[in-house]
Amino acid sequence: MAPKQRTARKVSRNPELIRGIGKYSRSKMYHKRGLWAIKAKNGGVLPRHDPKPKPQAPSQKPPKFYPADDVKKPLVNKHKPKPTKLRASITPGTVLILLAGRFKGKRVVFLKQLPSGLLLVTGPFKINGVPLRRVNQSYVIGTSTKVDVSGVNVDKFDDKYFAKEAEKKKKKEEGEFFESEKEEKKVLPQEKKDDQKTVDSALLKSIESVLDLKAYIGARFSLKQGMKPHELVF
Amino acid sequence: MPFKRFVEIGRVAQINYGKEHGRLVVIVDVIDQNRALVDAPDMVRSQVNFKRLSLTDLKVDIKRVPRKKELIKAMEEADVKNKWEKSSWGRKLIVQKRRASLNDFDRFKIMLAKIKRAATVRQELAKLKKSAS
Questions:
Q1: CA–CA dist B116, B94 (Å, integer)
Q2: Hey, is B82 helix, strand or coil?
Q3: Nearest to B41 by CA among B56, B54, B60, B57
Q4: How would you write A111-166 as a 3-class SS string?
Q5: Tens digit of pLDDT for each residue in A36-61?
Q6: What are the residue boundaries of the Large ribosomal subunit protein uL6 N-terminal domain, all occurrences included (chain A) (predicted)?
């Protein structure tokens, strides 16, 4: 406890009259700082601490090979990227309007932000055909309509869940060129279908409790005559 | 074709240009050919060009350049706020504001309601046509 009682910050005991000029002279400051007392304790000289013995660094052999030209080393970059800052208008349960991609115009429910920064989103699938999907925040309009997502557990979803399966290396032979196109048809694993069902069942209940919300989410958004996007309130 | 709304002390006007766009003010004095001194309960008294004012039908009974308290009292007696909100101009403004603040979901609900209303009107019309023919 004793060392913690001293203030962590070192405040100067010499108040500044004007920048560069302190109130007290050198001799006064010597007395104020108590250097006389420290010296008296130590027999007339300031105490001297011998340097702590450094741990023995392992002896390095001189390198066998020196490169002919000096190679410049790039500077160290310890910058770790943060996940994208989520807009304040987008909170779990917000209805978003997708602006690009296969589902453009669809209104969709936001679930959570994944560690990569992308937004995890679901239709729900039964209402508008949008499955559990990742979406970039930049291609989304956040409306002020919120759906209750307290009954939904989204902990198990992260970026690895959505990673593409590693394709088996195929040896392309001339004869099999056309046949190989027919073989691979990606079937969605049953596990993913079940995940979709569990997430959606909880959502559907809270959506159906609000009037017209189901029809709203099932409809696509489009700009009509006279709608000015910069004047619209979403 | 005679004029009905005059610039006079006590005339209620709406500022139609500038930072104070949309505010209801009372003309409190005339400065010169172009400008009026104008005041409102929640505003600092200031000068405004007549071109920036749209006169309304309402009038308040005040003397030239009244104190703020007297102005507020006179406006309460003339019941400017309620008369304005009941007038057709005032009602239109309220509707415009409401429409501008609509949510995307609200717009969707309104669209459904419009379709429903049009459908019932058309049904009634069809019935009437049938009974008339």
A1: 24
A2: helix
A3: B60
A4: EEECCCCCEEEECCHHHHCCCCEEECHHHEEEEEEECCCCCCCCCCCCHHHHCCCC
A5: 999 999 888 888 888 888 888 778 88
A6: 3-62
* B24/B78 Cα distance (integer angstroms): 14
> Which parts of chain A have pLDDT scores under 70?
1-7, 167-184
> Residue written as tokens 């007339």?
A44
pLDDT at B53: 95
State the complex-level ipTM: 0.77
> Kind and range of the H or E element at B2?
none
Specify the 3-state DSSP secondary structure of A53.
coil
Which positions 212-231 of A are in contact with B (Cβ < 8 Å)? 212-213, 215-216, 219, 221, 231
Largest CA distance in chain B: 70
Q: A9: helix, coil or strand?
A: coil
Q: Is A143 at the interface with chain B, CB within 8 A?
A: yes
